[in-house]
Specification:
single chain, alpha+beta, Transferase(Phosphotransferase), domain 1, 2 domains, 3-stranded antiparallel β-sheet, 8 helices, 11 strands, 35% helix
C-alpha cells in the first residue's frame, strides 16, 4: 500500500515493527501486519465496537512530526472528497494511544496479487472498467493520484476493485512542481522529473492494463511494440490495443488528456472488445 521512495537504499533495515499481534489500540485489536513501508505499516485488525475486521494504516513513530503528519492529513482530506464505489473510503482517522491511525475497509488481496494467477480476458475487461472509472472520478475533481499501480487496487471478493493510497496525490491547479514520487516501473517520465499531470496517471493506467492483458510490464524507453505485444494482440480487439498504446506514449500530449477521456473511449469500444475475446476463445 505504501511504496519505497527513490534513493532510499536499505530502508527495510530501518523500518520499525510498530505493533504486535493481539496488541490493543483503543477499540482495535491487531491481528496481523499486512505491509511495511518506509513511512507507515498496514495491519489487519479487529474493531471490537463494530465487530468487524478493518485495515489500519499507521505511520511509524520515528516520523511522527508535523512535516510527515501533514502528508497523512492531506491523504485523508483528499480521499474524503472522493465518493465513488471503486475508491476505497476512509472510515476514520484519529490519534489513538500516541499513533495516527487511518481505518479502512479490509479487502481480500491486491490486484497485484491477483495478477500472479491466470485471469480471463472477460474478467480483465470488467476490471478495466472499474479501474478507469475510479481514476476518472478522481480526475473529475482535478486530483492526480500519482501512484497508480496494481498494488493500489484492492480486491473485495472475486470481482470488485477499489483504488486506495492517495498519499502522493496532487491537485491539478496550474503548474505543479513536485518531487519525483511514485513507483518505479509505473511512473510516467515527466512525473519522474517532478512534473506530474493528469496524463501521468493515464500513462500509469496504460502500464497496468498492458500488464493485466499481456502478463508483461513494459520497460523504458517504452518503444512499441513492447515485450508481450503478441499476446496482447492475440487476446484483444485492435481498438483496445490502440487504447493501451496511446495511453503509454512517452509524450503526454499524445496520450488521453485525462482518465475521463480514456474511460469514455473504453466505454465505446468495450463491447467489440468483449465480442472479440469471445471469438478468440472459441
Amino acid at each position: 500500500m505504501l511504496r519505497r521512495p527513490a534513493g532510499a537504499a536499505g530502508w527495510r533495515d530501518k523500518v520499525e515493527s510498530v505493533l504486535k499481534a493481539r496488541q490493543k489500540l483503543g477499540k482495535y485489536r491487531i491481528e496481523k501486519r499486512l505491509a511495511n513501508g518506509p513511512l507507515a505499516a498496514v495491519y489487519r485488525a479487529y474493531d471490537s465496537i463494530h465487530g468487524l475486521r478493518v485495515a489500519l494504516k499507521i505511520p511509524h513513530r520515528r516520523i511522527m512530526d508535523d512535516y510527515f503528519l501533514a502528508d497523512f492529513r492531506k491523504e485523508v482530506r483528499l480521499t474524503a472528497k472522493l465518493d465513488h464505489p471503486n475508491i476505497l473510503s476512509i472510515q476514520n482517522a484519529d490519534f489513538n494511544s500516541g499513533y495516527f491511525v487511518i481505518s479502512m475497509p479490509l479487502g481480500d488481496e491486491t490486484l497485484g496479487d491477483r495478477l500472479t494467477r491466470r485471469i480471463a480476458t472477460s474478467k480483465a475487461l470488467a476490471f478495466t472498467e472499474q479501474i478507469l472509472s475510479a481514476v476518472a472520478h478522481a480526475h473529475s475533481l482535478r486530483i492526480i493520484h500519482c501512484d497508480i499501480k496494481p498494488e493500489n487496487f484492492i480486491l473485495f471478493g472475486p470481482d470488485y476493485l477499489r483504488l486506495t493510497d492517495f498519499g502522493f496525490a496532487k491537485l491539478a491547479r496550474g503548474r505543479i512542481d513536485a518531487s519525483g514520487s511514485g513507483t518505479v516501473g509505473y511512473i510516467a517520465p515527466e512525473q519522474a522529473m517532478g512534473r506530474p499531470m493528469l496524463q501521468s496517471d493515464v500513462f500509469s493506467l496504460g502500464l497496468v492494463l498492458y500488464r493485466m492483458f499481456s502478463g508483461t510490464l513494459p520497460r523504458w524507453p517504452y518503444e512499441w511494440p513492447a515485450a508481450g505485444n503478441q499476446r496482447l494482440r492475440q487476446k484483444l480487439h485492435p481498438d483496445m490495443v490502440d487504447l493501451i498504446r496511446r495511453a503509454i506514449d512517452v509524450r503526454p500530449a499524445r496520450r488521453f488528456r485525462d482518465a475521463i477521456h480514456m474511460y469514455n473511449v473504453f466505454s465505446r469500444i468495450r463491447q467489440p472488445a468483449v465480442r472479440a475475446g469471445q471469438v478468440k476463445r472459441k
